[in-house]
Structure formats: structure tokens, C-alpha cells
């Protein structure tokens, strides 16, 4: 791969011109023909009760698309390929393009099928067209959507005229399908990614394989179309090759099923040649009425694993999945060669350059990282810095704290023996980082336990042993109550305690040591429910397996507890450090607020709501944030309650700063380009509606106090360079979208750091509304880069702006807002939604069970 090289022509202040070799390839010649678009539809058909009957009875291929488990997509493509190559090759030559759903493109008008309604009835078992419906028969009907043909040259509306016309988007979709068509036939696909199943690496002890994947995306650029190639990895179930059987239904307690009507005959469990481990489990009934227990069935290969990977397999997966950039580029070039020689590309007359394009870029100067404002000297290299000899900008006193250990029984004696050392290490790190030469009296101080022998540890209210089987809430409540009793112990009768219990709870920090692996999750959920929702007490969880041991290197021990101190101070409301840049200094001249927002959807097979997260800054360095979590109907990308969230954020900000902000910079995660004109514009309207609502509430005159100037930026996960990239690399030409102002930013360093997962992933920033800088890219790039250095938990730049990352953390905490014993909700989450009405009914239950954060923590960073 070509190295990044610097431009010798000189540059304005603030950045250095460089050149990059991108993982993008130019389409040098568009398809030469025109295409007709067909809807692969679903005319009226016989509906049968039960999902099994739907798959076994008369279905249209469009019906299969409607009930879209993603695994059916590959089957639909195989059906279409069978129709074209085996059943009716004389009609489908040259072959049509099929997207696996309900859309097809043909370079000529298709003749009607020789039966009523012009439909084809096919079966994978038959080499000729069928003429009637029946078991296992699929109906395919092509309906011409419009008399107007799709001309690939219509993309010039977008790449030259910079206008997103419907015909340009249709042409873009056509070219995208041409690129993917070959991959659709020969590789397993999941959404945009195609996986190669021939070189999978087995994940030991899991029954899973790691597959290489390629994402090929056609994107418009200024004056040309390009194909951006990205590498990916996926998990697949390790299947076996055997003759597949058609399933007619399910049978309960399959092992006890009699082979014949005469109950004197043997059961399935007695007849099979191997002993069944679970004879009462379900089985499948085949076409011959044979019953096969489910545990004797084999998994069809080529099925992707869609569930969450178990914790103990994550490290193994990462070790196999992460490869050096040179290997990634080799895979990308191999994929390009396959596309160049694809029969669909050749028949269309389209040509692709085999060489990656070279683009001009900028290397932004890093912002100044400030710990102590009077001592600006800081070691800063490749997007990272060291806290050595540094003190927090604004340390907060941690007057009251408790350590509670839920360590496993086998390690409990070791953990308890090390509690004093853990405590002293936390004290040392917090005291060192809390010492700020300019504010000595405000240093982070911890009340430590002194003169305790080993026998005193179990009885110490500061360090409390507990069992995994203990009642978590009771154990923690009892511990903090005993600790408070010590604070007031020995007071004379009638003497006022030094602190009330409610104030004590607001200043208390509880450090919880969790057991390893899967045992940690249920305890952590109860800890967070107890602290975040019930009592309003700050909690910091530490994983037992990640605690430094006696064999750990001193530097590793120091680094670990320094990271703990970063989280503690930020949770308590302090500022660890901040980034200082020219654009941040300009913002400080007026009151400003920075917000981040995102939505996290449930997995395909999980029946849960989508979780929303909105955060907003509360200080003039954009380091302290408050969170507004919520839930909404699953699968909806728009934040439905955004107006209320923005209203609450500005209201809280205004009460703190004695007035509303003059500027609002809003970073939004998770919106695709196709949603820019619909979803994004509606959210911008929601934000401005929140302004109107707040001004009306406080009777504020817009003439004297105008609305905040709004900038709305969408942050997407896209990649333009798959290799070594310096922190601060910006691309704003060559591969950017011509329709909207946008740029790519690689904010964190990937140089010599490719082993970090997603180390070289750049982010795509689209500016959809800008009243602050009027679409001047330089300050927007500088601001976004600066905000990547404000993440309280890390001493390095992160890949996305801090408010976006915090919003994602808030979304990830979504299930912590429900009581751990909400059994009905847990049971419901095991199934999939089928229709909108069911969503609404379920959402009422979820909304009633959802609990807000305790008022004590509403403006704290409890979500870190």
C-alpha cells in the first residue's frame, strides 16, 4: 500500500496538505444499455394459518421477502437463479439483476409466462415450469413498474449537477446491484456484506467459524462514481454438508413419539441407534411422516451467527479477526478483480479501474490538551498523551467511599488479601492526579482506612466482603448504612451530625468488584439499578479478572488505577482535562451547548424497544455532560421525543448559566444518506420547535433573545482508507458526496496500531444545517477533531466526537432502567415482533416499566 506522503507546496495555518491512497476504485465507464425495472410482486394468494404452513404452501417470492428472516434472502436468490438458468434460460438471456427482495432489472422487456397472470410456478426439484400451485411451489410474477427505462447516465444529475433526482438515485441503485450481483450468487450475504465461506477459521470450542467479508459500496463523488471497498468479518455456524430434508411440522417430546399408531410399537427414542440426551425435546416431522429429534439434526452450512457473542469468546474472535492493513488491501484488490471480471459487469459494458485512487487530504494540527492551565507542557504523540506528572483540571473531593467485593469463592481470599493494596493504589492514583499545583485545596482526597490488620478487613465498613448469592441491594444498602453510622458515631446527645444522610448519599462513591465472565452481568445490573435508579448513589464497577495482580508490572498497575481515577473524578462532576483549540476559544465568547444523540435498535430476534440517548454539555470546555435516556418503538431511526429532550436540555442549561445558549451544535449518529431529506429535516424541525416551546414558557422575546444558532451534523461510520493513517487526517474532496457538504475524519491514530479493533476506521461527517459557520468546513473539521479529545475515560483521541460516544453509552445502559426482576419483559424479549399493533401493545408495558435516573444523578456522568 502506498504510504501517506506530504505535499511540499506549503499550507495555510492549521493543517498540512498530504496525499492518500484510498480503498476506492473509479468506475471508468458506466453501463452502456438501459434497463427496465420490475417488481417481483405478490398477487392475491392462499393464506394458511401458522408460520410453518406459510413456508410449505403456495408462496410468492414477494411473500418470502415480506417474512424476511435474513437467511431467506440467499434462498430467494437461488430460486431466481434456478428460474433463469434451469427452468427458462431462453427467456432470461441475458440474465436479469435481482436484489434478493422484490426488485429486478432487465436489459430488455420480458415476455409473459405462458399461463394466466403471466406468473411462473417453480420448484427447486423441477427443471421445467409448473402450471399449478402446490406444496413447495413458489410463484414468481414480474410486473413492469414504469414505461420509462433506467439510464445509468442519469447519475450525472448527482455527480455533476449535484442534485439528488429520483432518476439519479434509481441509476445509482442499478449500478450498485450490478456490482453486488456476482457476490450474491457465490457468497453468503448479510445486508451489504458478502462473506467468503471457503477460508473460514474455526473458533475453538464454539461451533463457529470466522469468515472474511467484503463490503462494496457505489458512491457518488465530484464528477465520477467510485466503488469503496471495505473489509469485514463475520461469524458463521459451523455446518455440515448433508442432503437437506423438507420439514412439514414440529412434534413435541419427539423421543416419546410412537413410530406407528399401535402404541405397542417402539418409540423414536427406543428406535434410534444412539441414546438421546433430551428425549422430551421437540423434533421435526418430515414429508414421509418420519419424526427426527432436533438433537439429531445437522445444521445447514452458510448460516451466519446473529446473536451476541459470549463474553469468553470475544478475545478469541478478536485475535482471529484483526489483520494488518497490508493483508486487508490484498483482500480488497482480489475482490476488485472478481468484480472487474464478473459476467454481469462485462455484459453491461461497465469498466472499473484496477488501481485504487489517490486523493488529496489535510493533516490537522492537534488541539492543545490541558490538565493544569498554568503548566501547558504535555507529551502528545500520535493522538495519545501521558498523565505522568499531570493533575486534573478540576478535581473533586471524594469524601466518602466504600469497596464491596462480589469476587468468586475461589478467588475471594486473594481478592480480600489484595483489597488493602487495591484501596491504596486507588488512593495513590487519585491523590497524585488530584494534586493540581494551582488548586491545592481542591485536590481529590480519599478517606482511607488506617491501622487495620488482616482480621479487621471483613468487619471494615469501608471494605465489605460479599457472596455472589447474596442479595445485592441489601448487601450494598447495609454497607453504606454502617459506613454512615461510623461518621456520626461518638457524637454527644443532641449534637448535629456533620452531614445528613441524603447529603451523604449525594457525595458517596461505591466501588464494586464484580466476578468474572457471565456472573458479572446480573450483579452489575442490580448494582446499577440500586445506584442509578433507586438511591441515586454513584457506583464504579471493576472486573475481578482485570484487576492487577502481584505479578503485574508496576507500570500496568499504575495505568490501570489511573484509568479508574479518570472515571471516578468525571463521575463526581470534575474535569480531568480538556482540549483547547482556536474554534473552542471562539465558542467560549458566547454561551454554547453541544449535544449528541443516537438510537440503538434491538437485535433481529429480540423483542425489545429501541433505546435512545441524548447528551448535552454543561460547561464551557464541553467536558461535562448530562444524559437523557429513553425508549421508543423498535426499528424507528427518528428520535420521536427529540423535541422534549432538547427542551429539557436547554432548560437545564439555562437555569445553570442564567440564560439560554447562543449556539447549539448537534451531533447525530446513525442516519443514512437516504434519510437526510426526511428524517434529518424532521429532527431539525423538532429542535427548533423545542426553542419555540421554551421561549413561550418563559415569555422570552425573540427580538431581544433570538433562538440559538443551530448546526446539525450527522456522523456516519465510513471508511476511505484501509491502512496506516495519522490522527487528524481529513478528506474533503475526491471521494466526498457532491450533494451535501461533508468530509471524512480519521481522529485517532492507526499508525503501528492496527491490532486495535477498528483502529483505522474513519468517520463521515455530513453538515445538513449550519447557522454558525455557514458551511465553512475548516472550523467544523477543527471542532469535530477537538471534541474527539475530550473523552473523560481515555488519554487518547477516540474515533468519534465525545458527545456521540456518550450518547451511545447512554443507549447501551437502556436495560439498566428496568427492574432486574421484570420477568414478563425478559420473557417477552425472547420473541420477534410481527406487526405494528403488537409493537404498540408491548411498548405500553415497556414504558410503564422504564424508570428515569434518580434526581441525584440527573446532571452527573453516571453512564461512564
Automatic annotation (TrEMBL):
Family matches, as Gene3D superfamilies: 3.40.50.2300, Ribonuclease H-like superfamily/Ribonuclease H (3.30.420.10)
Domain Piwi: 509-810
InterPro entries the record matches: ArgoL1, Argonaute_N, PAZ_dom_sf, Piwi, RNaseH-like_sf, RNaseH_sf
Cited PROSITE patterns: PIWI
Highest taxon of the lineage: Eukaryota
Alphabetized Pfam families for the sequence: ArgoL1, ArgoN, Piwi
GO molecular function terms noted in the UniProt entry: nucleic acid binding
SMART domains listed in its UniProt record: Piwi (SM00950)
Record's protein name: Piwi domain-containing protein
The organism of origin for this protein: Psilocybe cubensis (Psychedelic mushroom)
Amino acid at each position: 500500500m502506498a504510504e501517506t506522503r506530504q505535499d511540499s507546496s506549503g499550507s495555510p495555518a492549521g493543517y498540512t496538505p498530504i496525499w492518500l491512497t484510498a480503498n476506492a476504485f473509479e468506475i471508468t465507464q458506466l453501463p452502456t444499455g438501459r434497463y427496465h425495472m420490475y417488481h417481483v410482486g405478490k398477487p392475491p394468494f392462499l393464506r394458511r394459518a401458522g408460520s410453518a404452513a406459510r413456508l410449505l404452501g403456495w408462496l410468492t417470492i414477494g411473500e418470502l421477502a415480506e417474512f424476511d428472516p435474513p437467511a431467506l434472502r440467499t434462498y430467494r436468490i437461488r430460486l431466481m437463479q434456478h428460474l433463469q438458468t434451469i427452468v427458462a434460460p431462453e427467456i432470461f438471456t441475458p440474465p436479469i439483476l435481482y436484489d434478493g427482495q422484490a426488485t429486478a432489472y432487465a436489459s430488455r422487456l420480458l415476455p409473459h409466462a405462458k399461463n394466466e397472470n403471466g406468473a411462473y410456478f417453480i420448484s427447486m426439484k423441477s427443471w421445467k415450469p409448473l402450471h399449478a400451485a402446490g406444496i413447495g411451489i413458489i410463484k414468481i410474477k414480474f410486473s413492469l413498474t414504469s414505461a420509462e427505462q433506467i439510464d445509468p447516465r442519469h447519475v450525472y444529475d448527482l455527480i455533476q449537477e449535484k442534485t439528488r433526482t429520483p432518476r439519479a438515485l434509481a441509476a445509482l441503485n442499478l449500478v450498485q446491484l450490478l456490482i453486488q450481483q456476482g457476490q450474491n450468487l457465490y457468497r453468503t450475504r448479510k445486508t451489504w456484506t458478502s462473506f467468503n465461506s471457503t477460508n473460514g477459521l474455526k473458533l475453538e470450542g464454539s461451533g463457529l467459524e470466522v469468515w472474511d467479508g467484503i463490503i462494496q459500496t457505489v458512491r457518488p463523488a465530484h464528477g465520477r462514481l467510485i466503488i469503496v471497498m471495505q473489509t469485514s468479518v463475520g461469524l458463521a455456524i459451523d455446518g455440515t454438508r448433508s442432503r437437506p430434508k423438507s420439514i412439514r411440522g414440529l412434534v413435541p417430546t419427539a423421543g416419546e413419539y410412537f413410530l406407528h399408531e399401535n402404541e405397542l410399537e417402539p418409540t423414536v427414542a427406543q428406535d434410534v441407534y444412539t441414546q438421546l440426551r433430551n428425549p422430551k425435546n421437540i423434533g421435526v416431522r418430515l414429508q414421509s411422516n418420519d419424526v427426527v429429534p432436533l438433537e439429531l439434526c445437522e445444521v445447514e452450512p452458510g448460516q451466519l451467527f446473529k446473536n451476541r457473542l459470549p463474553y469468553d469468546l470475544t478475545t478469541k474472535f478478536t485475535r482471529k479477526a484483526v489483520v494488518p492493513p497490508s493483508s486487508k488491501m490484498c483482500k480488497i484488490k482480489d475482490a476488485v478483480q472478481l468484480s472487474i471480471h464478473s459476467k454481469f459487469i462485462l455484459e453491461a459494458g461497465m469498466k472499473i479501474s484496477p488501481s485504487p485512487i489517490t486523493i488529496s487530504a489535510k493533516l490537522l494540527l492537534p488541539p492543545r490538551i490541558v490538565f493544569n492551565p498554568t503548566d501547558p507542557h504535555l507529551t502528545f504523540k500520535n493522538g495519545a498523551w501521558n498523565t505522568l506528572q499531570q493533575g486534573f483540571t478540576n478535581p473533586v473531593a471524594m469524601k466518602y467511599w466504600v469497596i464491596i467485593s462480589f469476587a468468586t469463592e475461589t478467588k475471594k481470599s486473594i481478592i480480600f488479601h489484595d483489597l488493602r493494596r487495591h484501596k491504596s493504589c486507588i488512593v495513590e492514583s487519585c491523590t497524585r492526579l488530584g494534586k493540581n499545583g494551582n488548586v491545592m485545596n481542591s485536590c481529590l482526597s480519599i478517606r482511607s482506612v488506617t491501622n487495620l490488620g488482616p482480621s479487621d478487613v471483613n468487619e471494615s465498613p469501608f471494605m465489605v466482603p460479599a457472596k455472589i448469592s447474596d442479595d445485592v441491594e441489601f448487601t450494598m444498602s447495609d454497607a453504606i448504612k454502617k459506613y454512615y453510622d461510623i461518621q456520626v458515631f461518638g457524637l454527644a446527645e443532641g449534637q448535629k451530625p456533620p452531614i445528613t444522610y441524603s447529603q451523604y448519599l449525594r457525595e458517596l462513591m461505591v466501588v464494586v468488584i464484580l466476578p468474572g465472565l457471565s456472573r458479572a452481568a446480573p450483579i452489575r445490573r442490580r448494582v446499577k439499578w440500586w445506584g442509578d435508579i433507586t438511591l441515586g448513589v454513584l457506583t464504579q464497577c471493576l472486573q475481578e479478572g482485570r484487576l492487577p495482580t502481584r505479578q503485574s508490572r508496576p507500570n500496568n498497575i499504575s495505568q490501570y488505577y489511573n484509568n479508574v481515577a479518570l472515571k471516578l473524578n468525571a463521575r463526581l462532576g470534575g474535569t480531568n482535562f480538556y482540549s483547547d483549540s482556536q474554534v473552542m476559544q471562539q465558542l467560549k465568547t458566547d454561551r454554547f451547548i453541544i449535544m449528541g444523540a443516537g438510537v440503538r435498535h434491538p437485535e433481529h430476534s429480540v423483542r425489545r424497544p429501541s433505546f435512545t440517548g441524548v447528551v448535552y454539555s454543561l460547561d464551557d470546555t464541553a467536558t461535562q455532560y448530562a444524559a437523557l435516556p429513553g425508549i421508543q418503538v423498535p426499528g424507528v431511526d427518528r428520535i420521536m421525543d427529540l423535541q422534549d429532550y432538547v427542551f429539557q436540555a436547554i432548560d437545564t442549561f439555562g437555569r445553570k448559566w442564567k440564560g439560554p445558549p447562543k449556539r447549539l451544535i448537534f451531533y447525530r449518529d446513525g442516519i443514512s444518506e437516504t434519510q437526510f431529506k426526511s428524517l434529518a429535516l424532521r429532527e431539525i424541525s423538532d429542535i427548533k420547535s423545542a426553542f419555540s416551546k421554551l421561549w413561550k414558557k418563559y415569555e422570552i422575546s425573540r427580538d431581544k433573545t433570538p433562538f440559538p444558532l443551530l448546526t446539525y451534523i450527522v456522523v456516519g461510520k465510513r471508511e476511505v482508507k484501509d491502512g496506516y493513517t495519522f490522527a487528524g487526517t481529513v478528506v474533503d474532496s475526491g471521494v466526498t458526496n457532491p450533494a451535501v457538504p461533508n468530509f471524512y475524519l480519521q481522529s485517532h491514530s492507526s499508525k503501528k496500531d492496527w491490532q486495535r479493533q477498528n483502529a483505522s476506521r474513519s468517520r463521515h461527517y455530513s453538515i445538513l444545517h449550519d447557522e454558525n459557520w455557514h458551511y465553512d468546513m475548516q472550523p467544523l473539521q477543527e471542532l469535530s477533531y477537538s471534541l474527539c479529545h475530550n473523552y473523560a475515560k481515555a488519554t487518547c483521541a477516540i474515533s468519534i466526537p465525545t458527545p456521540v460516544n456518550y450518547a451511545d453509552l447512554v443507549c447501551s445502559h437502556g436495560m439498566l432502567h428496568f427492574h432486574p426482576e421484570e420477568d414478563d419483559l425478559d420473557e417477552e424479549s425472547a420473541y420477534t415482533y410481527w406487526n405494528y399493533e403488537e409493537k404498540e401493545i408491548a411498548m405500553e408495558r415497556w414504558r410503564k416499566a422504564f424508570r428515569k435516573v434518580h434526581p441525584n444523578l440527573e446532571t452527573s456522568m453516571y453512564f461512564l
